[in-house]
Amino acid sequence: MYGKASAPEYQGALTTLSVNSSLVDVLAAGTERLAAAERAGERAEVARSGLAVAEAHRRLGQVREADLAWKASYRAARDAGDVGAMAWALWSGGTLARQRGAFPLARRLLGLAADLGERGGDVVVRGYSLAGLAETGRIQGDYEAVGRLHEQLLAEARRRGEARHTVWALEGIAQMHRNSGDLDTAHALFEEAAEISARADDRRGHAWALRGLADVVSIRDGDTERALALLSEAETTCRAMNLTGALAYNHKMRGNVLYRAARYAEARDLYEQALAEFGAMSEPRGKALARLGLAKSLARLGRDRSETAKELTSLAGELERIGLRHAREMVDRAEQELGIGTDPAGPRGVTAEAVR
After folding, report:
1. Model confidence pLDDT, tens digit, residues 108-119
2. What is the dihedral sign for C-alpha 35, 38, 44, 45?
3. What is the pLDDT of residues 280-294, one digit of tens each?
4. 246 pLDDT higher than 50
5. Burial of 168 by CB count in 10 Å (0-12 exposed, 13-18 middle, 19+ buried)?
6. pLDDT exceeds cutoff 70 at 347
């Protein structure tokens, strides 16, 4: 049985904040408490309140501010000799690095966070850091290496009744099944994640689960309207909580759904919107994937084939630079689907596999 979802990253005097608190409210409360702790010379509290500030900035897409905040939190924790707070600050920094596409740095910071969490006896930050390492590998397409870790973390979360981490693990495993072509298993796992997150009142986790369900429903069932309805429900939560990154990925997914339905002009508009959103938050992975969707949509709308070919070549280099191991395959599929360099008669029909 799962209890109500909690937000262990809101610490010290901020433990009353909910997992569903608006990020704008979290930032305001965290900034106020941070200033008070600094005036009082309470270094441990500076570290703990600074963590909430860092996480609010990160989730709002404010990369520079988040980077300054997690580093300041770490320094305060180190001054206070608080090993657990040091681990949490490193977790925040590693998560930010992954968000920015700096995967080697993400792995290094999250590994250090996991070690410090173990040394300090904080099983929660250790679990969050291991989860971050697993997610980093999954995003890079290294399923063999991190699949077992996902399953291990899922088992541990189920055993402790931790709804939020159970939902995270289910969604990660579901995504790997989706990308590997096992849509039925992916659907079942996303559905379970949606059910658990709803019961536990984990609105953020629920929004991501709905996004995953919409993706699978669009591909497997061809049910465009249900997929769009699921995304609309998720978007309501993203806006209410100011989940900037999740909202951008929601818009990209809406573009995917519309593209699969051959509604190319609408898809183009959504990809352009997502591209601007990812650009504003310096999110290179999302930006590159939105560019790929936009390139495919523009090709369907009659863009010059040579321009499309140049864009896809540029994208291949960008995705490989970021460190996504399946980047070449994604671009190859786009080239094959559009008949770039292979079919002088023009683009071919839409395949079942669309932009991720």
Report:
1. 999 999 999 999
2. negative
3. 998 998 999 999 999
4. yes
5. buried
6. no
Is residue 341 within 8 A of residue 335, CB to CB? The reply is yes
Identify whether the C-beta of residue 84 lies closer than 8 Å to the C-beta of residue 125. Answer: yes
Please give the model's pTM, rounded to 2 decimal places: 0.88
Q: Is the pLDDT of residue 279 over 90?
A: yes
72-91 per-position pLDDT tens digit: 999 999 999 999 999 999 99
Asked if residue 43 has pLDDT above 90, the reply is yes
Which one, of 17, 59, 69, lies nearest residue 38 by Cα?
69
Handedness of CA 36, 40, 43, 45 (dihedral sign): negative
Q: For helices 123-139 and 83-99, what crossing angle results, to 10°?
A: 20
Phi, psi of 223 (to 5 degrees): -95, 85
How far apart (Å, rounded) are the C-alpha atoms in residues 72 and 66? 10
HEC string of the chain equals CCCCCCCCCCCHHHCCCCCCCCHHHHHHHHHHHHHHHHHHCCHHHHHHHHHHHHHHHHHCCCHHHHHHHHHHHHHHHHHHCCHHHHHHHHHHHHHHHHHCCCHHHHHHHHHHHHHHHHHHCCHHHHHHHHHHHHHHHHHCCCHHHHHHHHHHHHHHHHHHCCHHHHHHHHHHHHHHHHHHCCHHHHHHHHHHHHHHHHHCCCHHHHHHHHHHHHHHHHHHHCCHHHHHHHHHHHHHHHHHCCCHHHHHHHHHHHHHHHHHCCCHHHHHHHHHHHHHHHHHCCCHHHHHHHHHHHHHHHHHCCCCHHHHHHHHHHHHHHHHHHCCCCHHHHHHHHHHHHCCCCCCCCCCCCCCCCCC
pLDDT of the residue at 206:
97
Distance (Å, rounded) from C-alpha 49 to C-alpha 10? 7
Cα separation of 213 and 122, whole Å?
33
